[in-house]
Every structure is written in structure tokens, then in C-alpha cells.
Amino acid sequence: MAYDDQNIFARILRGELPAFKVYEDEQVLAFMDVMPQAEGHTLVIPKTPAVTLLDLDPEAAAYTIQIVQKVAKAIEKALDVKGIVLMQLSGAAAGQTVPHVHFHLIPTSVHELGKHAAKMGDMEQIKAIGEKIKAAL
Ligand code: AMP
Questions:
Q1: How far is it, in rounded angstroms, from Cα 126 to Cα 116?
Q2: Which residue CA neighbors atom 3 of ligand 1 most closely?
Q3: Which PROSITE patterns does this UniProt record tie to the protein (predicted)?
């Protein structure tokens, strides 16, 4: 699928839209989801333009997973949670709403997962949780 460089995450990567960033390096960015499915819902994205995991260069995918693991450990430590749902939607047919590949880290149980991309969260609360996660990294 062709990559649309006007998608929300491409715009966040270019600094055109704000984000509560918790981690950034040359290849990957992690930031808070603004419509969290649980408190602490964080997104990890490769900077490489790819729509789905299937389009992503395997080396970029491998590196991104290393950062997913790193951020997951920080979430566990910062929020004192024991379980994290790792979710990755590839394709609109799977429910993907933003066409730039990303990994969801959702500190909850699959049985408690809130509705997907449904309701804006409390920005002050999201910011405060993001700061805790950032401090644990
Ligand atoms: P997906 O449906 O897998 O593509 O997930 C996209 C995620 O991005 C959803 O969980 C949305 O809540 C989240 N989202 C959409 N816009 C923004 C934004 N501007 N900043 C942070 N997260 C966003």
C-alpha cells in the first residue's frame, strides 16, 4: 500500500503535530496514545515510512521490537503493572486507523481492553503518566 506522508504519525514525526513523547532515537519514537484503551497506553513507531508491519523492512522491525521491549519494561516499572497487552494492527480490515506502522503497549488484561481509538483521554493525566514512563527509561 502506498504511504501517505500526511498521516497523523508522519506529521508527529516531522514535528507538525504535538505528542507526549516518552522515548526517541534516530530510528524510533514512542509517545502516549491520546485515546487510551487503558491508563499508560503507549505507541512505538519506527521512523521508516511503512503502512503496516508487512511493509516494514525486517531490520527496522527488529530494532523497533527492541524499543518496544525497553518501553514495556519502563511502563511496568513506572506504573507498577504486571501485564501489558502488545497489539499491532496491520491493515484497515484489522481496524488500523493510522496508516503508519505502530505497536500498541497497553497495560491491562485482554479481558479489560477498552474500546479502540474511541474517546479522547484526559490530556493532563496522559501527560503525567507519560512523564512517569519517561523517567523510568
Ligand atoms: P491503529 O488503529 O492501530 O492505527 O491505532 C492508532 C492509534 O493512534 C489509536 O489508538 C489512536 O487512539 C491513536 N491516535 C490517533 N491520533 C493520535 C495522536 N494525535 N496522538 C497520539 N495518538 C493518536
A1: 16
A2: 96
A3: HIT_2
Structural domain boundaries of the chain?
Answer: 8-136
- Asked whether the beta carbons of 34 and 21 are under 8 A apart, the reply is no
Give residue-wise pLDDT tens across range 57-74. Answer: 999 999 999 999 999 999
First vs last C-alpha separation in the chain: 34
In whole angstroms, how large is the CA radius of gyration of the chain?
14
Question: CATH for 8-136, among 3.40.50.720, 3.40.50.620, 3.30.428.10, 3.20.20.70?
Answer: 3.30.428.10
pTM of the complete model: 0.98
Mutate to test the pocket of ligand 1, among 8, 53, 87 (most ligand atoms within 8 A of CB): 8
